[in-house]
TrEMBL record:
<keyword id="KW-0472">Membrane</keyword>
<feature type="domain" description="DUF202">
    <location>
        <begin position="9"/>
        <end position="84"/>
    </location>
</feature>
<keyword id="KW-0812">Transmembrane</keyword>
<feature type="transmembrane region" description="Helical">
    <location>
        <begin position="101"/>
        <end position="120"/>
    </location>
</feature>
<protein>
    <submittedName>
        <fullName>YidH family protein</fullName>
    </submittedName>
</protein>
<dbReference type="InterPro" id="IPR003807">
    <property type="entry name" value="DUF202"/>
</dbReference>
<feature type="transmembrane region" description="Helical">
    <location>
        <begin position="59"/>
        <end position="80"/>
    </location>
</feature>
<dbReference type="Pfam" id="PF02656">
    <property type="entry name" value="DUF202"/>
</dbReference>
<feature type="transmembrane region" description="Helical">
    <location>
        <begin position="15"/>
        <end position="32"/>
    </location>
</feature>
<keyword id="KW-1133">Transmembrane helix</keyword>
Amino acid sequence: MIPHFSDLSANERTYLAWIRTAVSLMGFGFLIERFDVFLVYTTRGAVLDSGLHLRASEWLGLGMILLGAVLILLATRSFYRNARLIRAETESAYHGAAVERVLTALLVALALFLVAYVGYQLTNLH
């Protein structure tokens, strides 16, 4: 039997959840980066403020893709650190909520930006 198998398995499941989250962020970033195609299609060619519109979606999409890549690196570091701590014979304190807090703040900021961005685009279609 593998010592601490249930703890190591839980660590691996957590790691895979972070990887799924990162891949979702990168996919959503790609979708946002291409959001201009959707808006042009739904407005049937209405004239949009293309300078602001294209730049905002491109930068936000690129930022989400980079955030996903950084999240993969942080999750991998955390996975190996936790695996090492699980295998260690000594007890240590848990200290790992900072990444979750930063990610939550970034996702709330993203949601607020998207609400404002889509609202602005919809009100300027006239």
